[in-house]
Amino acid sequence: MATLRSNGCRIAGLTCSFPAHEVSTADLAARLGVDAGRVVAMTGIERRPIAPDTMCASDLCFDAGTRLLDALEWQRDTVDVLVFVTQTPDYFLPASACLLQDRLRLATDTACYDVNMGCSGYVYGLQIATSALLAGARRALLLVGDTSSRMVSDQDKSTCFLFGDSGTATALEHGNDDLHFVLGTDGRGHNHLIVPGGHCRSRSTPLTCTRIEVESGNYRSAQELYMNGAEVMAFALRTVPTLFERLIALSGICAEDVDLLLLHQANHFVIAQLAKKLGLSSDRVPSSVRNYGNTSCASIPVTMETCCRDYLSARRSKVAMLGFGVGWSWGGCAGSIGPLVMPGSNRVVE
Amino acid sequence: MSTEFDPIRRDLESLLERDGQSLSGSELLSDIGWDSMAVVMLIALADQKYGAAVPPARIAVCQTVDDLCAAILDSSTSGHAKK
Question: What's the pTM value of the predicted model, to 2 decimals?
Answer without folding.
Answer: 0.96
